[in-house]
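User: Hey, quick favor. My workstation is busy. Could you predict this chain's structure for me?
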Amino acid sequence: MSSATGAVRDHLMASDTEFQRLEHEHAIYAAQLEQLSNKKYLSEQEQVEEVRLKKLKLRAKDRMETLLHKAGSA
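Assistant: No problem, here it is.
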């Protein structure tokens, strides 16, 4: 991440409630995925949950990237 991107990210973390919420959600999804990845075997239900969490995490990241891009070009 460039220093300019880092500065925009820091600004959004300090001032944008949506970005803060997305960052928080992304961290929660990552932690839940980490718990699943620590298991030797996943049940069918856990496999479905893993896919769901990956999609949610990606959606949060994509939205954060959109906000970063908008704020960086403003």
